Amino acid sequence: LAAGVMDSVRQAFTLSDGQLRTIAGNMRAEMALGLGAEAAKSSLKMILTYVQHLPLGTEKGTFLAIDLGGSNFRVLSLALDGQGNSSITKEQKYSLTTEHMTSDAATLFGFIADCVLSFAPDAVGASEPVPLGFTFSFPVHQTSINKGYLIAWTKGFSARDCEGNDVGALLQQALTARNLNVSVSAIINDTVGTLMARALTDQKCFIGLIFGTGTNAAYYERTANITKWDQPAGDGMVVNMEWGGFGDHKTAVEGDSLLPWTVWDQTVDQLSLHPSKQIFEKMISGKYLGEIARVIAVDLAKKGLLFGGKVSEKLNTVDGFESALLSAIVGDHSPELAETAAGLQSGLGVAASPADCAAVKEICELVSLRAAQLSAAATLAVIEQLGDKATAGTTVAVDGSVFLHHPTFRKHLQATLDSLKAAHVGAVCFEPSKDGSGRGAALVVAAACSH
Prior knowledge:
Elements: H1 5-13, H2 17-35, E1 47-48, E2 60-68, E3 72-81, E4 86-95, H3 98-102, H4 105-119, E5 130-136, E6 140-144, E7 147-150, H5 167-177, E8 182-188, H6 190-199, E9 205-211, E10 215-222, E11 236-240, H7 263-271, H8 281-284, H9 286-302, H10 323-330, H11 338-348, H12 354-386, E12 394-399, H13 401-405, H14 409-420, E13 428-432, H15 436-450
Parallel strand pairs: 2-5, 5-8, 9-12, 12-13
Antiparallel strand pairs: 1-11, 2-3, 3-4, 6-7, 9-10, 10-11
C-alpha cells in the first residue's frame, strides 16, 4: 500500500489518553444533564427504572421471568435459596407468529399468557401470587417498577392497542383472565438484568454493560443526583442510560462534536437505517464494526490503493462486511494471512494480495481498538459517577457477543480503563454476566419482594 495511505487511517483512529478523558468528561456532563430538570437537552435518556434494590444474596423463593425481545421469547423459573445460590428450575422457548406480532394486544398478550399457563399450570388459582419479572426489549416510558407504556414498536412488531398503553397491565389482564395467580411485579430491559444477574453474588457490582449487536449501560445512581425524579425515595435507583445515543445532537467531523467522528463514520451514519441517531453505538457495537471497516476498504479501493482498485458487489453492499469476519481477521495469525485472504474471498468476493490482507487486518485492528477505547472512556464516566462506591473497587457486569467473542476487545477495554482511571479509584474488573434478560428479570422481582 502506498506510504502514507494507512497513516491517515491510523491518525484518524488513534486516540490519546487526553482525548479519552475528555470524552469521559463529556459523558459525565451529558449524564448530569439527563438526570436533571432539563433532561430533554441531553443525548442520554437516563431512563428511571424504579429498580431501587440490588440483590443481597439473602433472597429466597421461586420467581418467574418472561424475556420478550423479538419473535422468540422465553419463560423461566428461578429458585433462590437465600444463600446467594440461584438455579433455573425450568425454561421453555416459544415462537411468535407474524399474526401474533401484527394483530392486536389481546391476541399477542393472550398467546404469551397461554404459554405461561402451559409452563406453570400450578399457578392457576394458587393461594399466593407468583411474582413475575418481564424483560420487554422495546422502548417504554416507565412510571413505576411494573408500569411501562410502550412508546413505539420496533423489530417487526405492530400489534394494535399496545402503543401508548401499559404493557405490564396488558400482560396482567391476560394472565388474570386465565385464572393465573401470577403478579407482573417488574418490567425491565436486558441491561438492567445484566447488572442484577452479577450483583446477586458480587456486592461490588453497580454497573451492567452490553457490548453486542447494540450497546447500553445501566448503573445504580444515588437519589440525590436524580433531580428530575418528582417523588424521590430511598437511597437510589438503577438508571438505564441508553448510552448508544451519546453525542447524537452534536455530530461533526471537525469542531463541536462530543466524539472523534471521522469521514468514514459520517459515511456509515449516512448509509444507516436511522442517520444521526445512535452515534456512539455506530462507533463501538457489533452491528457496525464490520461496516466501518467496509467503508474504509471501499474508499481505499476506489482510490486504487486496495484490491487492485476493484470493488466487488458484496464489498459495495451496506452491512456486507460482517462483524464476525472482522473478528476472524483480527484473530488471524496464519502465514501470509491466508485465512484473511480466504475470508475476504468467500465473504466479500474480493481477491486480496498479502499486502491487501495486511492492510485490511490493520484496518480491522484499528476499528476494534478504537471501539474498546471509547467503551473504556464511557465506562470511566460511569465509575466516576459512582463516587465513594468506586474507591474499594468495582465489578462491571458485561454481556454481549463483542465482549465475549471478539479476540482483543476485552483485553483492550481493561487496559485502557486501567490507564485512564485516577489513582484513588479502586481496581475495576470487567466480568461476564450471563442471562440478564432471564435470570436478571427474576432477580429484580426477588430483590423488590424481599424489601
